[in-house]
């Protein structure tokens, strides 16, 4: 019994209030504000288009259009921890600072996905060619958003298989 009390006291005195998880600065915007939007309009006859919208209320709506024109929308509420992790990741990566490095597409089927972010204190639109979303910080930002919408990481590799 004495060992249990000693361990409990050591545990209590060994903890500081600052030892817990760091608080994430969530967007201070109205609940119906679109915080993150990811859009890919396909230019290929065998590739789906995608539009994912996450509101400050944590409502996520993902709409896909298949190559044959079939549309489907699915909505769900993301957990508080998923939401906070995404906001933290977008801020940490500074996704709003990404700039396009190419003025023209390298392939006729290449799309130009658009990421829109509104964190209240930071708003931006980042539009890059498919190949640009597969590199560096842009890739990490794209994967962060893909983890939330769960519709796969778009952009896909170029349709003709040519290197980025």
Radius of gyration: 20 Å
Q: Profile the largest sheet.
A: 6 strands, antiparallel
Count the beta strands: 6
Sequence of strands across the biggest β-sheet: 4-3-2-1-5-6
Query: Runs with pLDDT <50, length 5+?
Result: 1-18, 156-164
Silhouette: globular
**What's the level 1 CATH class of the domain at 30-101 and 109-149?**
Alpha Beta
- pLDDT averaged residue by residue: 78
Please identify which CATH superfamily of the domain at 30-101 and 109-149 we are dealing with.
Mago nashi
Q: How is the CATH topology of the domain at 30-101 and 109-149 named?
A: Mago nashi protein
Sheet-strand content, in percent, reads 15-25%
Which CATH architecture of the domain at 30-101 and 109-149 would you pick?
Answer: 2-Layer Sandwich
Amino-to-carboxy terminus distance = 65 Å
Order of helices and strands: HEEEEHEEHH
Count of separate DSSP helical elements: 4
Structural class: alpha+beta
What brief labels describe this structure?
disordered N terminus, 6 strands, 27% helix, alpha+beta, 4 helices, 164 residues, disordered C terminus, Mago nashi protein, six-stranded antiparallel beta sheet
Notes on the protein architecture:
By secondary structure, the chain is α+β, with helices and mostly antiparallel strands. It has a domain at 30-101 and 109-149: 2-Layer Sandwich (Mago nashi protein). Helix content is 27%, strand content 23%. The chain contains 4 helices and 6 strands, in the order αββββαββαα. Strands 4-3-2-1-5-6 form a 6-stranded antiparallel sheet, covered by helices on one side. Strand 1 and strand 2 form a beta hairpin. Helix 2 (80-93) packs antiparallel against helix 4. The longest helix has 14 residues, at 80-93. It is globular, with a radius of gyration of 20 Å. The termini are far apart. The relative contact order is 0.18.
